């Protein structure tokens, strides 16, 4: 990655030096500039392809991360629902016992 960036930077410096050295360009200089421009465009295209692949993989792994986090939560809820029902029944029974206990004792 840095190699490509260095080449782009070097080529851009070379392009600037060529541009500054000549005030009047002839046909061969224009041809050289066009070749440099094509070379830089190809390097930019390579970087763009790399970035696009990177973004695609980031999207894939973000979905995988969401699935890895959400799946155990969903299965946990499905698995624990009967236990919550039993717990609520026990709490209801405890509440009934406590109401009876407080109704017996005078204040």
What would your notes on this structure say?
The protein has 107 residues and is mostly helical. Helix content is 92%, strand content 0%. The chain has 2 helices and no strands. Helix 1 (2-21) packs antiparallel against helix 2. The protein starts with a helix and ends with a helix.
Question: Could you name the key traits of this structure?
Answer:
0% strand, single chain, mainly alpha, 107 residues
**Sheet having the most strands:** none
Work out the count of structural domains.
1
Percent in helix: over 70%
Tally of strands: 0
Share of residues in strands: under 5%
Q: Tell me the span between the first and last alpha carbons.
A: 82 Å
Number of helices: 2
Series of H and E elements: HH
Please tell me what the overall shape is: rod-shaped
Radius of gyration: 36 Å
Low-confidence stretches: none
Mean pLDDT: 82
Structural class comes to mainly alpha
Topology diagram in text:
Layout: H1 2-21, H2 27-104
Summarize this structure briefly.
The protein is an all-alpha fold and 107 residues long. The protein is built from 2 helices and no strands.
């Amino acid at each position: 990655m840095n190699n490509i960036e260095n080449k782009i930077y070097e080529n851009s410096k070379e392009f600037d030096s060529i541009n500054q050295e000549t005030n009047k360009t002839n046909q061969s200089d224009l041809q050289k500039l066009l070749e440099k421009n094509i070379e830089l465009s190809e390097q930019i295209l390579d970087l763009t392809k790399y970035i696009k692949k990177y973004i695609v993989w980031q999207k894939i792994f973000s979905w995988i991360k969401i699935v890895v986090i959400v799946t155990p939560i969903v299965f946990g809820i499905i698995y624990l629902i009967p236990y919550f029902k039993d717990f609520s029944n026990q709490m209801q029974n405890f509440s009934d016992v406590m109401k009876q206990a407080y109704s017996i004792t005078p204040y």
